[in-house]
């Protein structure tokens, strides 16, 4: 593991990493970098100790690191005994009542604050919906996954935030079977490629080459934005959820967004067709490219604003959050996701930044970029479990604490459920009580 000292030197010599912070001035940025240098220095011995522990851990990863072993004062004590506040829970953990009972029992035993529960997957519902078809993975018994999660989780004192995928609506190898599915009912809403094809026409190989998960809708269509807002409103009015959590609130890539509606709308505003920028003089081409990116960001932002308005009408004060990309430059340029502006403007109460890179150095650099005011809890680092050892995850959590973050999330419960002993090892590396997360065998 690359030591945190290298990050400290990079920050002190070169300033903040690319991607920027939350709109700081150059003076404020320099002060923030200096402060970060001081706080990160306190984490160096912790990370080095965790690395050494990882190299000597037994096959179960069960070696314990105490607060003294970790290099002095246990700064995580400021966060009580909790080192994770929220767990993402994917829809695969909601398929039957036994799985949900286990989910709540294990989350409660772990002492987390709440669950981000995926109830809108690929344009389908894991709740009782009049707008979306029932998910194909669920049986036809009428079992209500979200209803049961809420009943059990609230009884255990856990928050439940309804996680809904927004513009990503399908990824299976076959088309959705239900005629009510948005791909069957509104194929004209699907995003298009530069060659004019709908994303439904992409082969599996083409998806892999483009790095896209499936079929996306076009944010530029007002009907798409209204449809997404209506889903959030349905959940907020039908269920006593503690919040709505948006995901895939972005374009799939810079190549997308060229459906006829988006092109016509932009052409009316700017006098040029985005599909024909190449015919323009070089200077105008560059200016139009910039205007097109701004246009696409505005369409995605309009989805967030529509959801915000819809739940404000039905459940005033209900929390609205989103999972967002960690690389803010790529998020804004390639995916039209201007999430820093959403936070500044109050469109979201909280963002969960997907700091999913396996490398500790990468994740700490990302968290440093957003750390101008981490104590507010509005920016929450989301740390991945599926691609990291317990020691690496512990180092990321320690680094987040040193940077001042007081709210953290893990992706995901499902990964913890599949990796026996991982939670106990993580607790050990962080110097917290062991056996907080029952093993998968204790069902």
Report on the architecture of this protein.
This protein has helices at 4-14, 26-41, 44-56, 97-110, 145-155, 182-185, 204-210, 222-238, 260-270, 282-314, 328-335, 339-344, 360-369, 390-402, 413-418, 422-429, and strands at 86-89, 114-120, 159-165, 168-170, 215-216, 243-247, 319-325, 350-355, 379-384, 409-411. The chain has 443 residues and is an alpha/beta fold. It has two domains: 1-73 and 349-432, no CATH class; 84-311, Glycosidases (TIM Barrel, Alpha-Beta Barrel). Strands 1-2-3-6-7-8-9-10 form an eight-stranded parallel barrel, surrounded by five helices. Strands 4-5 form a two-stranded antiparallel sheet. The radius of gyration is 22 Å and the shape is globular. 48% of the residues are buried. Residues 1-34 and 53-81 have low confidence and may be disordered.
Task: Name the poorly predicted regions.
Answer: 1-34, 53-81
Quote the distance from N terminus to C terminus.
35 Å
Number of strands: 10
Please provide the ordered H/E string of secondary-structure elements: HHHEHEHEEHHEHEHHEHHEHEHEHH
Provide the helix percentage: 40-55%
Proportion of residues in extended strands: 5-15%
| CATH domain class of the largest domain | Alpha Beta
SS element count, helices:
16
- Gyration radius (Cα, Å) is 22 Å
Oligomer: single chain
Under the CATH scheme, which architecture of the largest domain would be assigned? Alpha-Beta Barrel
Judged by helices, strands and strand pairing, the structural class is: alpha/beta
